[in-house]
Design brief:
22 strands; single chain; OB fold (Dihydrolipoamide Acetyltransferase, E2P); binds adenosine-5'-diphosphate; Rossmann fold; 4 domains; binds magnesium ion
Length: 683
């Protein structure tokens, strides 16, 4: 039965295609090509022009040529390893086709004697004769050969010929989908339809034409579908009605006036945005984004205080126990007389754990801190009104949505992240949430001074840190992270540890990839307690933890890190009032490009600016490991090259929202481009 050519055709299984059986399909699936639609984005890298045919006499030796000939004699030797030969001619001369590993029967079928065929392949000249060995294309129908053949980066086991065949097939059967964009948007792309754009995309002469309207239109489709999914999730969350949380703002202000510091303007703004959400009848789903050390914790604690004042419980989740404990200690200092609070950790004794669980269920605890363990099934809250999740920027959209569902309809959700991302990626990554941004850092804080040093000058570094240790300061020493070889990774850290431990006996601690979690927490705790002066580590030191005495960070082999990562690392120091420094160590002198990169880091402490530059230099794919977080990687769109398309899509989303346009118009777009499960319960 012929399948109807609508978008379902594109979403159907690869085996629907002629020439694709289970074997080929599974090869493609290994390359994450699961549907016919996925194959559309398998683009040719270049092409071979087989369109012009010549006479034998005019063949150019060494080139790929197409020629029409008549086979007149076979030579099938009975001796192993000798090739089969077919002698062919045209009116100008003779040509031999040589076949290794082809059966007689097959050869007779494709090259029947006395019938004109067109063949194409690389031409050799041997013993005074033209030869084509294992010709790539042979057909009686010259029109099948005399075209430009696309070359693809090949999947193992799939030939160029097969790729050409199946992609041609798809293009031939491509459905003409109803237009989802309106006229205004289409004007940006010379009114080209999706159908025409895909057709253009696969034409050999259009290879690499990234600035053309067809390419940009398809990139825009990709971006808009991504944004639409996010905005639909957001809309769905917003539809959840909750009871308004009412609390006395005077209590909050009193608390603020008793702090050792005054909130920055950005902190005040973020807090009031959060308060507005809390006191509305829509569920909050908000991201508080701010550079390292911008003071997000206090904002979240005050929000928690307000929610508790309104009669609810609050859960604050951190990625590590040590960070959960730090938040807990700070909250104890601020609120101990005003509410009941506790910490649930893996170290909590069983008997205490039981009591905590009971108290949470009875609402004897108002505020609980912990790692993801506080969201286990057995943890039942009496009246949970707010979940705060710290430093979980790597949560993908699915994980976030699940979290938001977890607390139930009365529960507001606040996520916090110290990972500034480029403006164009905000919607891509966090479009499902409302956003509060803290840009400005507390005023007294001094910027981290950033230096570069050659590895051979390690003596100068040692001299420098000796002085700092005398002043009571602590040092992070980060060893290169060599992903290809975990082993080298460890040895380099261990070696460095031994070297430093000789100079500073018993004052150096070591953390590497093999250190288990429990030991890691102990070491970090002891470092916090100043039992060590230096912490050597390979793993990136946990985000978020406050090490008030650490003011020096040394990063070896610094060129292994992206700018954003270096900025994050340097953010581990400089949280106190002391001048802090970051020393980037290099094996050899830097080239101009590397110098330019580092200049950015030296010149600014603005994480947002740095992430923009980082993206321009390294592409968006691996900015701070967002790849693993399930952030969609685009096939055509590129946030650097297509920045204006991202901005256009942002505007379009707002227009769609405000015009209350029927989302069904975009149903096909979303279904095609975002095949994630998440969309199933939306559209
Ligand atoms: P982050 O945004 O990275 O989570 P934190 O909340 O851990 O930052 O704050 C870093 C440090 O800055 C903490 O020691 C905190 O007490 C302090 N801090 C926060 N806000 C201010 C402020 N407005 N003025 C001075 N210090 C502040
Ligand atoms: Mg923090």
């Amino acid at each position: 039965m012929k399948i109807k050519k609508n978008h379902n055709y594109l979403l159907s299984d690869l085996t629907k295609l002629k020439g694709v059986g289970n074997k080929i399909a599974s090869l493609l699936k290994k390359k994450r090509i699961n549907s016919i639609f996925d194959l559309l984005w398998k683009l040719p890298k270049s092409y071979t022009d087989r369109s012009i045919s010549t006479k034998i006499i005019d063949l150019k030796i060494g080139d790929i040529q197409t020629v029409s000939v008549i086979p007149y004699k076979y030579n099938f030797p009975r001796i192993k390893n000798l090739p089969n030969r077919v002698f062919c001619k045209d009116i100008t001369g003779n040509l031999e086709c040589i076949f290794f590993n082809s059966y007689e029967g097959y050869i007779k079928k494709i090259l029947p004697l006395g019938k004109e065929v067109t063949i194409s392949g690389k031409v050799n000249f041997f013993r005074n004769k033209y030869q084509i060995t294992n010709p790539k294309y042979i057909s009686e129908d010259s029109t099948l050969i005399k075209v430009k053949h696309n070359q693809y980066s090949l999947t193992e086991g799939i030939s160029e010929k097969l790729y050409n065949k199946i992609i041609k097939q798809i293009i031939k059967d491509l459905p003409r989908l109803d237009e989802w964009h309106n006229k205004e948007i289409l004007k940006n792309f010379d009114n080209i339809s999706w159908y025409d754009a895909v057709n253009e995309l696969h034409k050999p002469e259009n290879i690499g034409n990234h600035r053309s309207s067809f390419y940009r239109r398809l990139a825009f489709d990709e971006i808009l579908s991504n944004f639409l999914v996010h905005s639909e999730i957001r809309k769905k969350i917003k539809k959840i009605k909750k009871k308004v949380k009412s609390f006395d703002i005077k209590d909050q202000n009193e608390l603020l006036s008793n702090l050792e510091f005054r909130l920055t303007d950005d902190q005040i703004k973020a807090l009031s945005e959060i308060n507005q959400d809390l006191t509305s009848n829509q569920k909050m789903f908000r991201l508080l984004q701010g550079d390292v050390g911008s003071g997000k914790t206090i904002v979240s604690l005050i929000a928690a205080f307000n929610v508790i004042n309104a009669g609810y419980q609050v859960a604050i989740m951190a990625p590590t126990e040590i960070l959960a404990r730090q938040h807990f200690n700070l909250a104890k200092k601020l609120f101990s007389k005003k509410m009941n609070l506790d910490l649930l950790s893996s170290k909590t004794k069983n008997i205490d754990k039981k009591k905590i669980l009971k108290d949470l269920n009875n609402h004897k605890i108002d505020l609980i801190f912990g790692t993801h363990s506080i969201f286990q099934k057995k943890v039942l809250f009496n009246n949970l009104g707010l979940i705060v999740i710290d430093e979980q920027h790597k949560f993908g959209v699915n994980q976030r949505k699940r979290l938001s569902d977890k607390g139930g309809s009365e529960c507001d959700v606040l996520l916090m992240s110290a990972t500034p991302i480029p403006r164009t990626l905000t919607m891509t990554i966090y479009g499902d949430m409302d956003l509060s941004i803290i840009k400005e850092k507390p005023k007294y804080r001094k910027d981290v001074k950033t230096y570069t040093k050659l590895e051979s000058k390690i003596d100068e570094i040692i001299k420098f840190i000796k002085k700092e240790i005398k002043l009571g300061n602590q040092i992070f020493w980060v060893c290169p992270l060599i992903e290809e070889s975990k082993k080298i990774d460890h040895t380099s850290a261990i070696k460095k540890f031994e070297l430093l431990n000789n100079i500073f006996p018993k004052k150096v601690a070591l953390l590497h990839g093999k250190t288990d979690l429990e030991k890691k927490e102990i070491i970090l705790n002891n470092f916090l307690k100043k039992e060590y002066d230096i912490l050597v580590s390979t793993t990136i030191i946990e985000v978020g933890i406050d090490f008030p005495n650490a003011n020096i960070i040394i990063i070896e082999n610094a060129n292994k890190f992206g700018l954003s990562q270096l900025h994050q690392l340097r953010g581990r120091v400089g949280r106190g009032t002391k001048q802090s420094s970051c020393i980037l160590v290099f094996k050899s002198s830097l080239n101009e490009n590397a110098k330019k990169r580092l200049q950015i880091l030296k010149n600014t402490n603005d994480g947002f600016k740095i992430s923009e530059e980082d993206m321009k230099l390294r592409g968006y794919g691996d900015i701070l490991g967002f790849k693993q977080s399930g952030v969609k990687t685009f096939r055509l769109a590129d946030p650097v090259i297509n920045e204006n398309l991202f901005l256009l899509a942002e505007k379009e989303i707002i227009r769609i929202k405000n015009s209350k346009e029927d989302i069904n118009r975009y149903k096909t777009l979303i279904k095609l481009y975002d095949q994630a499960d998440i969309i199933n319960d939306i559209v």
